[in-house]
Design a protein that fits this description.
alpha/beta; 9 helices; nine-stranded parallel sheet; disordered N terminus; two-stranded antiparallel sheet
């Protein structure tokens, strides 16, 4: 009888016990700043950001080589911000160019931006929709042991899809921070990225070295840890995502 009484007491206590909350999953953010190499004082503010920012340097800028060296010395990951149609200039890729010319321009761009670990596309809404050229690029990056970041400047991009086909280390952008160049809008986009990271586990942000963007980042990035966000570099993000597409970019981890 005593056993039954004890059992009933335990059951009654369990009914009023607080439910055990599951441990929150980790939320990771990565940040890339594009269009670097044009203005050294401005770009050096990017190097001073308090964390593992990735520096995407354009080959056709006056300080491309010098700033790549500075970023490398500062311990930042350097990537080539490769101009692609509708971008123009001596390095830009266009759909009507033969592979030999694409290779020539890529080689020249890599020479201008030393210490590159990978590339992402500058513009490229037309070029990243070209399956043959993108397949060639991903094979070439694989050969060079470099990764690819799809800036996703167009919904028609097949770049990440082609990278995934050969298991090239790659990742896709989730949030552009500064399509609208006001601090209020940039702050809103940063909060969108944070919410997305909390929801799906990770988010990749791309911004530019605009004064408004840098002001928001300088103010808000130190607060990430208190919000449960871990700021990681782009190589770590590639590892976290294991080359799989997020729900916004594909289905069941496969890029559309």
């Amino acid at each position: 009888m005593r056993f039954v009484f004890v059992l009933l007491c335990c059951l009654a206590g369990a009914a009023h016990a607080e439910p055990v909350s599951p441990k929150p999953h980790k939320a990771y953010l990565s940040l890339i700043i594009d269009d670097l190499g044009q203005n050294l004082p401005r770009d050096r503010r990017v190097l001073a950001l308090p964390g593992p920012v990735t520096t995407a340097i354009m080959p056709d800028t006056p300080h491309a080589t010098e700033f790549a060296r500075e970023a490398h010395r500062a311990g930042k990951i350097v990537i080539l911000h490769m101009p692609m149609d509708p971008a123009t200039g001596p390095y830009a890729w266009h759909p009507d160019l033969p592979i030999e010319e694409l290779e020539k321009r890529l080689n020249a761009a890599f020479k201008m931006v030393p210490y590159t670990a990978g590339i992402n596309n500058h513009m490229g809404s037309r070029m990243t929709a070209q399956p043959v050229a993108m397949a060639w690029l991903m094979g070439e990056l694989q050969r060079r042991h470099k990764f690819f970041v799809d800036s996703r400047t167009s919904a028609q991009t097949v770049a990440a899809q082609q990278a995934q086909k050969i298991d090239l280390a790659s990742v896709s952008r989730d949030v552009f921070l500064d399509d609208e160049r006001t601090e209020a809008a940039i702050y809103t986009q940063l909060q969108t990225a944070i919410s997305l990271a909390q929801k799906q586990g990770s988010a990749v942000m791309i911004g530019h070295p605009y004064p408004q963007t840098l002001a928001v980042l300088e103010r808000e990035l130190p607060k990430l840890k208190a919000q449960g966000i871990e700021w990681i570099d782009i190589r770590q993000m590639i590892s976290v995502r294991s080359n799989k597409a997020t729900a916004a970019h594909g289905k069941d981890g496969v890029y559309r």
